[in-house]
Amino acid sequence: MNKYIAIDVGGSKMLGAQYDEEGQVLKRYKVKTKAHRGRKPVFETLLSVIDQLFDPDVVAMGILMPGVIQNARRVEMCSNIPFEKMDLAELIEEKYPVPVLLGNDVDLAVLGEWKQGGYTEQHVVGIFVGTGVGGGFIFHGQLYTGQGGAAEIGHMPYKRDGLLCGCGQFGCLETVAAKSGMLQLIEKERKKGTESILFDTLIPGEMFHTTDLYRAWQKGDPLARKVISKSVEALGYAVGTLNTLLRPELFIFGGGVMESFYDEICEELHEKALAHTMPALRDNVRFIRSFLGDDAGITGAYYLAKEASLGRRL
Ligand SMILES: [Zn+2]
């Protein structure tokens, strides 16, 4: 029986799983990444996760992490994990006799949602809204990464002279649409003395919980309403742009913010997206919500491992 290993390498934890041919999870293993320890110890931790899951039936591995991945083989940039400019796939293949492919976390989450959902659409754009905004493209039924790092939707310019983004630019989409940007706005309003029940739960200097924002929004809190409304406006603009530019058949919305808010805001979001789309291109596009939650990425890594077993290089 062929088996596959998928590993989600995150800044705080590494989650590995062994899958069978049909995609059933046979084993799971989780450890803390402890990224601050530096490259060698973190790489050794990754190898220890593989050791827990590897056996002679394993035929390929797929590994995901945040950052820019080149040719599904090399980590070019990675802000939370000390693997920058590392030929990670090759280094793992030196230790285990099976092919290894790497992928960006959101790219693979979109791949996982699309494959597992059994969608017939072949041109897909995924938009994941959480602390940042991540994206993934599937064109002609294949993950599209350009020369590595494509689909950085959160860093599309949105607002001239906007807030500083984690990427170093000002006014990126995620400085308005994602939690990192919402937090900046909420903190600004607090300093102005604005009243909001958000301040009952918010700890200064820390990221808020999406569930707290959702509760405040449901109660009609004006500040919660304001940040979500600005987010929907920005996302509508971005989705309209992407729709006009790429003409996909399907948009998949995921990530923590979408998981909480999608049912409430989807109508407005779709309306705005279509209003920002070139009129002749407004037909035949479908908008859906993700369904795999936190498992989307690792599921995508499983499908990536299957590609690797077929000798494909994305
Ligand atoms: Zn940015």
Overall, the morphology is: globular
Whole-number average pLDDT?
A: 96
Helix/strand/pairing category = alpha/beta
Proportion of residues in β-strands: 15-25%
Number of helices: 10
Spatial strand arrangement across the major sheet = 3-2-1-4-7
CATH topology of the largest domain: Nucleotidyltransferase, domain 5
CATH class of the largest domain: Alpha Beta
Gap between N and C termini, in Å?
A: 25 Å
Characterization of this structure:
The protein is built from 10 helices and 12 strands. The protein is of the alpha/beta class. The strands form 3 sheets. A 5-stranded mixed β-sheet has the order 3-2-1-4-7. A hairpin with a 2-residue loop joins strand 9 and strand 10 (142-144). The structure holds zinc ion. Zinc ion is lined by residues 155, 165, 167, 169, 172.
Structure in a nutshell:
With 314 residues, the chain is an alpha/beta fold. The chain has 10 helices and 12 strands.
